[in-house]
Amino acid sequence: MIEVLDPRALNRAVLARQFLLERTTRSVPDVVEHLVGLQAQTPHTWYLGLWSRIAGFRPEDAAERLTDRSLVRIAVMRSTIHLLTPRDAHGLRPVVQPVLDRDLFTNQLHGKAIAGVDVAAVVEAARPLLAERPRTPKELGALLQPQWPDRPAATLAYAVRNVLPLVQVPPRGIWGRSGPIAHTSAEAWLGAGPAYSPATVVRRYLAAFGPAMVADIQTWSGLTRLRDVVEPLRGELLVFHDDQGRELFDLPDAPRPDPDVPAPVRLLYDFDNLLLSHADRRRISTDAFRQAFAQRSGPVPGAVLVDGFTAAHWTLEQDREQARVTVHLHRPVAPAEVEAITDEAGRLLVFAAPNTVHEVRVLSS
After folding, report:
1. E strands, the chain, where?
2. Rounded CA gap, 196 and 206, in Å?
3. What's the rounded Cα separation, in Å, for the pair 5 and 16?
4. What is d(CA 91, CA 104) in angstroms, rounded to the nearest whole number?
5. What was the pLDDT predicted at 260?
6. Structural domain boundaries of the chain?
7. pLDDT, tens digit, 9 for 90 and up, residues 49-106
8. Is CATH 3.30.70 the classification given to domain 285-363?
């Protein structure tokens, strides 16, 4: 008889693996590597993802790692910028390269414009330019366009970004600072490193996000046909069913807490991996949360987890003198839960805006 895991059991399993049941004391690189990176296309909001997961986390704990190159921001899963260790940057990018190749030729802005171009020649022309010094996409495209004058400069730069692993270099991404999006090659910034096998990537995903369906792994990575990778691993994995009878795979030694273990209030950042890494998101996201943003374009505001599930969303407004977190509830919550939300939002303000006057507002739906 195969054990059935309902959404609440899956909720507690993924919260434990994401360090959202209890903040961890592990180092920033260890946490980033365990999580298989953090989605980080915004310059700074991902710092809140680390704050939510690491006890005593300070912005400089990650900012210094970007400067000394022990963390990097690079396009990998779903052709999206992630914060990674150098080992994962080298290991993951070749495995997910088909996703970036597909994105280049199907991209709404650049797909038609790049058709018929010898992309390999574009990349080879870009290599020495990027090795010389980091370049903005605008600068790189302008340098390449004389060789391909009939193609948009932005498209040429985008082709390089998708085919050649590029690192976004500081000061972009440094907490409290700003800077243009400038790239150099991962090879120039980090040196060389070995690629992972697809099986290794599947195991890493399960350690951070399991138990999971094959469809979940494909949603997270952007890859297809991963059933062919998972099936040979079946003998070393545990197999469960979800409440709809679908197969879930997991590592034997991964945590699967009791579904009734308490889950503290947590404020997730706008692109938190927890909300983006499953095909079936019922283990975290409620119908009310999904419906609230079903028609919204652009980033979704940060989610508030109450008892492990999305119960509200939050926004941060700040200037030099004051900062306010506003929480918009999606369902009624108990007074003790309102107090817990207010306390966690207050702690976030201490982290994100330490030298301002703080205010927390909790608004009913």
Report:
1. 4-5, 38-39, 72-75, 81-84, 166-168, 183-185, 238-242, 247-250, 266-267, 302-306, 309-318, 322-329, 357-363
2. 15
3. 15
4. 21
5. 96
6. 4-190, 285-363
7. 999 999 999 999 999 999 999 999 999 999 999 999 999 999 999 999 999 999 999 9
8. yes
